[in-house]
Amino acid sequence: MFPTVSHFLEYLFGVQVPLPFNTFGVFVALAFIAGYWAFTKEFKRKEALGLIHPIKKILTVGKPATTTELISNAVFGFVIGYKLIYALSNYKLFVSDAQTILLSLDGSILGGLFFAGLFAYWDYKEKNAHKLPKPKTVEVTQHPYELMGTLIVWAAVWGFLGAKIFDNLEHWDTFVKDPIGSLLSFSGLTFYGGLICGGAAVLIIARKNGIKPLHMLDIGGPGMMLAYSVGRIGCHMSGDGDWGIPNLNPKPFTWLPDWLWAYTYPNNVANEGDPIAGCVGKFCNELPQPVYPTPIYEVIVAFILFLILWRIRHIIKYPGMMFGIYLMMNGTERFFVELIRVNTKYNLGGMQFTQAEMISSILFLSGLGLVLYSMKNKEKLANY
Predict the structure, then answer these.
(1) Where are the domains of the chain?
(2) Could you tell me if 87 and 101 are in contact, meaning their C-beta atoms sit under 8 angstroms apart?
(3) Rounded to an integer, what is the distance from CA 87 to the centroid of its chain?
(4) What are the pLDDT tens digits along the chain (384 aa)?
(5) Cβ(160)–Cβ(189) under 8 Å?
């Protein structure tokens, strides 16, 4: 396993390059990039079809930087410099434990002041370069795909918060023991929490910019499936604990790699299992029994489902149907993988189920309802 990018580079090239990047975080970033690409493609396609439209905005140009803008840029620059200079001056600690560096109150005052001045001066010069003797208002056209930068930021912030909230609800005993540590930890993220909260934020921003909810949902279906597939690569490569139950069954095919059938996740980032003999460092544990590598199964299945969604998007005519199909596919995939995945079980009326099983069932039924609604109201939605 490769808990950090440095471990991966050492595996490939035999050279240890100390970098403060964990593998899971890198693949989360790549998942956002993949989603950005798919969302943008769908925005442009639906605009070309006349289903969504650009909007006119009135902007004032030629104004100098205001005091509020200078102060906000200075504050932002101070935070960046405060942490960046401290991290670089304590690089070994940053590489070995980036979370401690980033979430502690320690930092460089001089670095913060330097970057505060730099960011404020940069904003001042930028606005001054375009300053007019008399500011004027202009009308600009904003195409829907140009919202992607804003949507990605809001989806990332609220998605992360939602993922943390749902994860702590799922692991309530751990949260009660250390609530602050659980909330601030970079590990422990629940996909459905991110999907629900991040999706809600995207819908609100889209609605404010004239994009109707059903069209926004349809745009997001394929992109979210692709992003999920890419993100799960990070779960598998880092060994973040999203693996399956023990699998002691013999391989059905001799040519099948062990990591595709039953794997012990050596050097996993979750530090689960028994110590590895001779291993020195932070990530030196390995599971005592091989388990189903469920993250890689989800990578494969989710990518196949993305290809199906990408293929059928041209023939789906009714608003809401694409997202309904996405919900049904997502719910079905996640429900069945939960059958062989390690997870917290809930008891209700003698029935045992996991949080993901419950939510995936709700999503499937919601998707089915959305598909039926689209079919039943196709005439009403024709001009939606």
Answers:
(1) 5-54+143-376, 62-139
(2) yes
(3) 25
(4) 899 999 999 989 999 899 888 898 899 899 999 999 999 999 999 999 999 999 999 988 889 999 999 999 999 999 999 999 999 999 988 988 887 788 788 999 999 999 999 999 999 999 999 888 889 999 999 999 999 999 998 988 888 888 777 666 666 566 556 665 555 555 555 666 777 888 899 999 999 999 999 999 999 999 999 999 999 999 999 998 889 999 999 999 989 998 899 999 999 998 999 999 989 888 999 999 999 999 999 999 999 999 999 999 999 989 999 999 999 999 999 999 988 987 777 777 777 777 778 888 988 999 999 999 999 998 888 778
(5) yes
